[in-house]
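Memo to structure team: turn this sequence into structure tokens by end of day. - J.P.
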Amino acid sequence: MFKKRTTRVRHSKELTRLQVNVLSPRIVWFGFLKACRQTVKVAVLVTLGVAAVWGIRELIQKGLVENKEFQLQAIELTPNPAIDERRLIKVAGIDINGSLFDCDAGKIEETLRALPELSAASVRREFPGTLVVEVIAREPYLWVASTNQEVQPRDPEKGLVVDRQGIVFHCPPALHAKAELLPLIQLSEGGEPLVPGKPVVHPEYDRLRRLYQVACREIPVAESWVYLLRQSREWSLELVSRDGTEACFGLGDHERQMKDLKSALDHAREREQQIASIELIPERNIPVKLRGGVPRAILIDEPAPAGVPDRRARDLNDLLNR
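Reply from structure team:
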């Protein structure tokens, strides 16, 4: 049998150590040249990369940003009472002499959404040169004031209004005429401060807003007739009209109380009289004071049988004819 011959090269430790330690100036020189070549290659690649980036940037700058075709030519702003083109340019920092590429739609949109008087905003660029801005302005629903803050109620410049969601904001000048007819909710101490762009956080506000909503449902002219709403005592709310009528309500049962108020007002109007104050918390015995008269009270009996005149209407009629 033949055995497979193998050749094994065995290097002694002395030979290996000798090969490692042998260095000549020629070997060092060639190693230096090799390192220089690699460094030059890297430097050339970096230079080419920088040149390519610079070239692309210059191409974009010359071909797009500085191209007159893409200059900002028009701003299409949704008609609204809160912000006009001049204020938009100032607030968003828009360069009207710049390019459409200089207008950062996302940043402008974020800036507009931060304005308390706007409920929504959308910005987009339409090439070659139009910036489209769509906004939705908040509609004043009520004036609001607090004794905790030194803000005069109904102040056209510093006064605060709320929309139907209860968000606080300053009334835009274009809506001052409309806002003059809105009621004022006067809040006492307590709750959080009124901050533009934030919702009202106050226990009295929720009660008074619900009372006003009932008034709008039961009295057709409530939006222009109601002047002031406030919580006069811990257990009662007060409504003051523009003609001076003061009506006292409880914390609940507002539908029934508002209907009683409407009936009293209708009877007084028919007889050309005016109610100075009325206490609506009692269900049957309602104290009423006529303008220039003395306080009186009427008794509201149980509903009358069919065919008999309504006792509440009769009692109101008797009271107003005294």
